[in-house]
Amino acid sequence: MSDENFTENAKKPSHLAYTVSEGKSDQRYWTKIGAAWPAKDDGLTLQLDAIPRDGRVTLRSVEALERLRAERAQENAQGQEQSQSIKP
User: Fold this and answer.
1) Which of 27, 43, 53, 57 sits at a 20 to 30 Å CA gap from 83?
2) Which residues contact 16 (CB under 8 A, 6 or more apart)?
C-alpha cells in the first residue's frame, strides 16, 4: 500500500468499537465507544471515547456493518411491500 493510499484510507475508520450490554428478555444494547484505523504494520490503531465497565470491546468492520444495514433495509422494504399487498 502506498503512503498516498494509506492517507486516503486513514481518514475513515475501518472498524467501529462497541460495548454490548444485556437488557431484559435477551435484548442487547450496542453503544458505540470508538473506532479503529489501519496501521502501517497491518495492525489497527484503536481510539476509545469510553471504556466499558466489563472491559469488553466489540469491533465490527465498517464494510460488514454497511452490508448488514443494506440487508436489513431490503428485508424491511420487502416486508412493507408484502403487508401492503395484504391490505384490502
Assistant:
1) 27
2) 32, 34, 35, 36, 59, 60, 62, 65
- Taking the C-alpha atoms of residue 12 and residue 10, their distance in angstroms, rounded to an integer, is 5
Structural contact between residues 61 and 14, judged by C-beta atoms closer than 8 angstroms: yes
How far apart (Å, rounded) are the C-alpha atoms in residues 39 and 79? 41
Cβ–Cβ < 8 Å for 59, 37: no
How many CA atoms lie within 13 Å of 1's alpha carbon, on the beta-carbon side?
13
Return all residues near 44 (Cβ < 8 A) that are at least 6 apart: 14, 15, 36, 37, 38, 59
Tell me which DSSP letter residue 23 carries: -
pLDDT in tens, 2-51: 455 555 555 899 999 999 999 888 899 999 999 999 999 999 999 999 99
Residue 49, all three cell numbers? 471515547
